[in-house]
Design goal:
Blueprint lengths: L4 H4 L5 H7 L15 H10 L11 E9 L2 E8 L4 E7 L7 E6 L9 E2 H14 L8 H6 L3 E2 L6 H13 L13 H8 L6 E5 L5 E5 L24 H18 L5
Parallel strand pairs: 5-6
Antiparallel strand pairs: 1-2, 2-3, 3-4, 7-8
């Protein structure tokens, strides 16, 4: 599906991005808010019902192919965002990770997986260009590690945000460096494991600075309690088929 109507205008609003990225709560980019900081404080002090997206909850389902979706569940009023996947054989969407201001576990995807998903989304729906809105919205759920091309990842996220920025706007806008400050696990002793089925999970034996907050830290348990490896693998497989079938090379 395309971006829901309730989200189309906010995607071009710096206030939305200041909230979505937690810049308004001293997250990355807070030092660049300028006059927006006062506006955000005024909004928090007012108890009105003006239809502002800050009071909204919405799900955005991005199809990657053959009925497989990556779903961003957004509850802006609670500063809570979740990444889920669904497949044709799955009764309910499976949660990969979540991000909030309390007990966050956002890092559900490797950079290459997010890039693949966003390429598949763009292939299925040319209105959702890559890099563009899907990458800007979903990047909070991906991290980079020692073997990633981090310069390319940051450049792609810069381009995704820039594609949404109004031409006349010169103030605060999120950037790739903001994302990287929360997603950079190079040198943080994160190692990836893989089983015969192709499931991957991370292990952090020690860390110098950033603890790896993720539910993707163990093998497939075959129960509802563990990370949903099989649904993610199915979504990545569908995305690979979509991109490969389009004749577009993966980078």
């Amino acid at each position: 599906m395309a971006i829901p109507s309730a989200l189309q205008e906010p995607l071009h609003d710096p206030v939305f991005w200041a909230r979505f990225t937690f810049a308004y709560e001293e997250g990355p980019g807070a030092d660049r808010l300028g006059d927006l900081a006062d506006l955000l404080n005024d909004d928090d002090d007012e108890d009105d019902d003006d239809g502002d997206f800050a009071d909204s909850a919405v799900d955005v389902a991005f199809e990657v192919g053959d009925g497989h979706h990556a779903i961003l569940s957004m509850d802006a009023s609670a500063d809570s965002y979740s990444l889920l996947v669904t497949t044709p054989g799955l009764a309910e969407p499976a949660e990969l990770g979540w991000d909030d201001l309390a007990h966050w576990h956002p890092h559900a995807l490797r950079w290459s997986e997010l890039d693949l998903i966003c390429r598949a989304i763009a292939t299925r729906d040319p209105r959702l260009r890559h890099p563009g809105a899907p990458l800007a919205l979903l990047c909070r759920f991906a991290a980079v590690f020692d073997d990633d091309d981090v310069d390319q990842a940051v450049a792609d996220i810069d381009a995704a945000y820039a594609a949404l920025r109004p031409a006349q706007w010169k103030g605060y806008w999120p950037c790739g460096a903001d994302w990287l400050s929360r997603a950079d696990f190079r040198g943080e002793h994160v190692t990836w494991q893989r089983d015969e089925a192709g499931n991957q999970w991370a292990r952090q034996d020690d860390h110098d600075d950033e603890p790896f907050y993720s539910t993707r830290t163990g093998p497939d348990t075959g129960t509802a309690d563990g990370f949903p490896h099989a649904p993610l693998r199915a979504v990545l497989g569908a995305a690979t088929a979509t991109v490969s079938g389009s004749g577009r090379a993966l980078s």
